[in-house]
Amino acid sequence: MEENNRTASGPGTETATISLGMGAAVQVDNYVDTITDSIDGTIAIVKDSYDDLIESIEEQIDAMEYRLERKREKLNRAFIAMEDAVSKSQAQAGWLSSI
């Protein structure tokens, strides 16, 4: 706790020291200010950290979705090629059986 000491003296007076400290309400107010400061308060720092984490996860999701779409397209092309090959094989089998 921060204290302010004051000494009063003069001719015909008693010397006294009075200690003034911060009251509990002032301490709580200062603590709340350090937590809730919108620029460098604890809550702002934690919020910024979570915002950065969310942004990073969103970028990872975008990258995964991109790779997934490329994989889907590749598998789709392979399936179409396989279907085409099966169709040609069936046509050849039909032609061979007619000979």
In brief:
71% of the residues lie in helices and 12% in strands.
Structural features, described:
By secondary structure, this protein is an alpha+beta fold. It folds into 2 domains: 36 residues, no CATH class; 43 residues. Helix content is 71%, strand content 12%. A two-stranded antiparallel sheet has the order 1-2. A hairpin with a 7-residue loop joins strand 1 and strand 2. The longest helix has 57 residues. The chain is rod-shaped, with a radius of gyration of 39 Å. It starts with a strand and ends with a helix. The mean pLDDT is 87.
Supply the key terms:
99 residues; alpha+beta; 2 domains; 2 strands; 12% strand
Provide mean pLDDT, rounded: 87
Percent in helix: over 70%
> How many helical elements?
2
Strand content: 5-15%
Order of H and E elements: EEHH
Strands side by side in the biggest sheet: 1-2
| Separation of the first and last Cα atoms | 106 Å
Shape assignment:
rod-shaped
Major beta-sheet overview: 2 strands, antiparallel
Give a count of the beta strands, DSSP E runs of length 2 or more: 2
Structural class based on helices, strands and sheet pairing? alpha+beta
Write down the domain tally.
2
Please tell me how large the radius of gyration is.
39 Å
Q: Which stretches are poorly predicted, pLDDT < 50 over at least 5 residues?
A: none
